[in-house]
Amino acid sequence: MDLQVSDGDRKALCAIARRSIENCFRKAPPMEYSGPAYKLGAFVTLYKNAQLRGCIGRMVSDLPIAETVSQMARAAAFEDPRFEELGEEELDSISIEISLLGPMQRITNPEDLIVGRHGVYISYWGRSGVLLPQVAVEYGWDRYVFLEQVCRKAGLEPETWKDRKAELYIFEGLVFGEVRN
Length: 181
Hints:
The protein is of the alpha+beta class and 181 residues long. The protein has 2 domains: 7-101, Hypothetical protein ph0010, domain 1 (Glycoprotein, Type 4 Pilin); 105-171, Dna Ligase, domain 1. The chain contains 4 helices and 7 strands; from the N terminus they run H-E-E-H-E-E-E-E-H-H-E. The protein has helices at residues 7-26, 65-78, 133-139, 143-153; strands at residues 41-48, 51-58, 94-101, 105-107, 118-124, 127-131, 167-177. Strands 1, 2, 3, 4, 5, 6 and 7 form a 7-stranded antiparallel β-sheet that branches. The longest helix has 20 residues, at 7-26. It is globular, with a radius of gyration of 17 Å. The model has no long low-confidence stretch (mean pLDDT 92).
């Protein structure tokens, strides 16, 4: 992805994500946002003991990235339907990963999907699903398993991606996370 994000901006976005979650427990007023003003889609993923603890994001956003990351961090902590809400006692044991998303590109040829570089989004008859670029690598999937898995995530049959009415999109992501001691 051509997006250049400085180390300082990466650290700032990670700090914003953590502070946003902490402020929910402290009933603090809304945060003031500073930092990069670019507008991108973003996902925030929470891990506890190297296990997924929450992940929510937006494919596109018209908000400055700091605000998008803040909102997605809160949503990952408290709104991911796969998990109980994050407890305050868990704060010190979670790590945060941020995925900034490039623009989506519609594809009709599955060979255009490059594992390790692209994430994938499917839309079919009102259902949709997304898997971030790092997911296929983490699980050792090839492009066809990746496509089957995004169909499953959308609640579709695994081979739905082959249907001409299925809309497939690829996108690149810039992934980074907190450095915790």
